[in-house]
Amino acid sequence: MTRKSSMTPSRKSIPAASRKKAKPAQTSTIPSSGSKGKVSAMWAGRFSGGMSPAMEKLSVSLHFDKKLYREDIEGSVAHAHGLFAAKVLTASERDRMIAALKGIQADIAAGKALFSPSDEDIHMAVERILTDRIGGLGKKLHTGRSRNDQVATDFRLYVMRRAEALVGRVEDLQRALLEKAKQYKKDIMPGYTHVQQAQPILIAHYLLSFFFALERDKSRLRHAWWSAGEMPLGSGALAGSAFPYKREMVAERLGFPAVSRNSIDATAHRDFALEFLGSLGCLGVLLSSYAEDFVIWSTSEFGYVKLGEAYTSGSSMMPQKRNPDSMELIRGKAGRLMGAYARLFTVLKGLPHGYDRDLQEDKEPVFDAVETASVCLQVMAEAIESLTFDTKKILTRMQPALLATDLADILVEKGVPFRDAHHIVGRLVGEAEKKGVSFLELPAESWKAVPDAAAVKKLLTFAFSVERRNIQGGTGSKSVTAQLKEAEKMLKRVG
Is 315 a catalytic residue? Predict the structure, then answer.
């Protein structure tokens, strides 16, 4: 199938399933003979004895996969249309089934306690509730469908939707950075390498470095959306459905841009989820890196930035403390996001072909990573909006040695080979360090190797240094203005 759709970021979130304790309900399970466990209705014809209580505890996944209720029900609604097209359901049966499914979805969203202790997962829970409500017709829903392709469809749909929502969160952060960059587009700060003052830069240039890095995170999330965008329904357990199932029609209803090309691939593989977690891991590392800057710069030793009170905390013992907890927590959550990737990678490593029950472990790391990344992005965006730079203090902390590279460049312009220029300037800085002064304060005798030393000294200012770098992507004011315009264009693009 040709992929027709494009990904458009969405801010909509999935209502959380009710956390209320479910009341016991009538179940579709069959008591076993001489066993404490029960036999699931799914395979009651094959088994006479039930699972042990410990095995039931190991097997049940409803407590976490109920997050997929919306995707599961919408998948079942689309499947009902597919069964009608395949002449398995009549029009009236389809309509009755779909109405009941939508009623179940509304009830779960409203927080009604519909689940039973006998429900193994969200998929069987929905089917049981459906059968309780419309009788034998509910048992027709699973025709031509396996839990293997059903689960894979639900999970892919979940990843697609959360990738869209997270792109929206990233764009919220980018907007905050863009506005802050406009606010400080004329202000200078020291740029760092190795956490040592290196060269003067505009504060806006620094903030835009965060903005453009986030653009690549959006690209990774969008690619994860496309990777997840192949609908598995119709693949059955692994060999495909035996019914004339119109897969492309069902895929279009669900918003999938394509159908899977191979039924084994569709049901067995979770590389799309791994890619999604990888993109969130990269995002977490980026957020952590800038959070680290803000933690350091908010210390009294630096005093460059101040976060809004809502994004800081105090101390239970020391009254004077104002801690940058928002940034510290974001920094710490990066490990959680990277751990989710490692967790799923470990599950998938070495699985044989076809579906295996190990894949029940694919969802929790994704659920956790989605919630973690979403809240980190929201807090980072709000914290950036609240953040102020103390530009006067920053200027007092800027060391004249930041201009050493500019002096070397000027010497090159005067015909001195760069390596010789580097040596001359390095000697000046070293001498100044020994004397405890700025290299600009050294006597004229120390500057003998510099042609027109007096005139050169007058040139060496932080503003001069910045404006020498108006090359595309540089920190000069013209370059930064161009970057601001490009950033605005990026946020206006759709899809």
Answer: yes
